[in-house]
User: Which sequence fits this backbone?
């Protein structure tokens, strides 16, 4: 195994909007599996868009969280 | 394998039973023993599957039935616990280890779990901190299936309509009333596109099956073959269910019959997308063809295709996790023995049970079980 530097860019593979939340989350919120540019698949919440607007194929970027926040989340990126 | 099934029994499934897991299980075992027409002292080994049972759950159930001193194997494999227990019991007979073996599946989550959804593994704190829930896995699979195959919300809802219809003639089911397509779609969202009426109810219940050598009684049906597999570190929410596909393929090979021979199936419809991906994984329909198949009524009793979840599935019967695999087996045995009454699939000669589950993160699932039966 070896460390791999990630750009943090990726694309939503599949997603859902949760109306029954995990502890600490306010419903409704979107979660997704994202395929990162390097080919890895990662799960996380999608923050910064209307939950229902998050769809497969959407471009997202990883944002790292701080104390009291999720370890990371996905932020939609504007696409031309 | 071809292990004869001599008797089956199942308790009422209820959201909150007034009976304990031991009492529910004892009721199922007594029914199975009576059905087999044997003296219970001829049971030489017992295999007891629970997902949320106590330590020594099998012994706690069996001691008050006079079944002490025999080998008791306690099995935990998430929602495939019951299927695993049944397969082990059938193998014990097929191997010649014992002449008669008992399989029990049971859970009473209203007594053993906090109210609400089945929890994710508490060891999986990181994934919970990212917002994951159990329904999220099914919601994401449903989104992927819609995206890839054009599956619609109506297809997803049609599964509930069918299974609630089937469940309305199952006296042991939690839900014994039908629902309409509009009601299913209009019920509150849980994990989009899945609504509450596309989700199975939690339930307390138990089921039991007695396997025996052919000289031990009158077989109702035969377990032709089966397989329980564990998940791999691959797409957990993909449009296709690779774990179920692998498990089904191995089970059919062991059984020597294939999906083309099936008349009836009981599959893991914890959420309606689970039934759609399962009937594709089992080879009953091709990839992406499940929604139209169910919507057209082909999987409904009398619909002309392979009837799926004639007992109402998890959606109507309810889902005491460890009990489900054995309850599915009981339903298929009743169908093959021609004893299913109002919900009888005419002329059923071969059937299959499929169950999967468990939330160890990044695995497809903890386990999947597929059992193939014939008469």
Assistant:
């Amino acid at each position: 195994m070896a460390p791999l530097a990630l750009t943090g860019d990726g694309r939503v593979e599949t997603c859902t909007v949760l109306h029954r939340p995990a502890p600490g989350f306010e419903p409704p919120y979107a979660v997704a599996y994202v395929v990162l540019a390097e080919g890895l698949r990662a799960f996380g919440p999608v923050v910064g868009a209307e939950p229902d607007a998050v769809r497969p194929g959407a471009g997202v970027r990883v944002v790292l969280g701080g104390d009291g926040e999720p370890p990371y989340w996905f932020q939609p990126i504007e696409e031309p | 394998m071809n292990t004869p099934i001599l008797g089956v029994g199942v308790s009422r499934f209820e959201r909150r039973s007034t009976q304990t897991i031991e009492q529910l299980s004892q009721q199922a075992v007594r029914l199975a023993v009576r059905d087999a027409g044997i003296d219970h002292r001829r049971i030489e080994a017992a295999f007891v599957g629970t997902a949320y049972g106590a330590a020594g759950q099998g012994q706690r159930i069996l001691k008050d039935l006079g079944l002490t001193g025999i080998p008791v194997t306690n099995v935990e494999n998430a929602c495939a616990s019951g299927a695993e227990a049944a397969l082990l019991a059938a193998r014990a007979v097929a191997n010649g280890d014992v002449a008669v073996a008992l399989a029990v599946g049971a859970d009473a989550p209203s007594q053993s779990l906090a109210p609400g959804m089945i929890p994710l593994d508490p060891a999986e704190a990181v994934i919970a901190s990212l917002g994951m829930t159990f329904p999220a896995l099914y919601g994401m699979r449903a989104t992927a299936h819609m995206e890839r195959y054009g599956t619609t919300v109506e297809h997803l809802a049609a599964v509930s309509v069918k299974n609630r219809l089937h469940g309305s003639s199952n006296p042991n089911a939690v839900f014994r009333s039908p629902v309409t397509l509009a009601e299913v779609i209009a019920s509150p969202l849980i994990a989009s596109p899945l609504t509450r009426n596309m989700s199975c109810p939690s339930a307390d219940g138990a089921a039991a099956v007695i396997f025996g050598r052919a000289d031990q009684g009158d077989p109702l049906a035969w377990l032709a073959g089966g397989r329980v597999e564990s998940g791999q570190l691959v797409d957990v929410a993909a449009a296709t269910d690779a774990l179920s596909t692998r498990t089904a393929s191995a089970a059919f090979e062991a059984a020597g019959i294939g999906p083309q021979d099936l008349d009836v199936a009981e599959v893991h419809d914890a959420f309606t997308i689970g039934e759609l991906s399962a009937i594709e994984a089992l080879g009953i329909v091709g990839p992406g063809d499940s929604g139209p198949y169910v919507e057209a009524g082909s999987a409904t009793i009398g619909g002309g295709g392979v009837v799926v979840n004639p007992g109402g599935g998890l959606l109507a019967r309810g889902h005491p996790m460890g009990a489900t695999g054995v309850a599915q087996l009981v339903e298929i045995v009743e169908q093959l023995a021609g004893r299913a009454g109002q919900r009888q699939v005419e002329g059923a000669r071969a059937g299959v049970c499929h169950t999967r589950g468990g939330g160890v993160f990044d695995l497809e699932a903890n386990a999947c079980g597929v059992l193939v039966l014939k008469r």
In short: The domain at 125-199+226-374 of chain B is CATH 3.40.47.10 (Peroxisomal Thiolase; Chain A, domain 1). The radius of gyration of chain B is 19 Å. The first helix of chain B runs from residue 21 to 36.
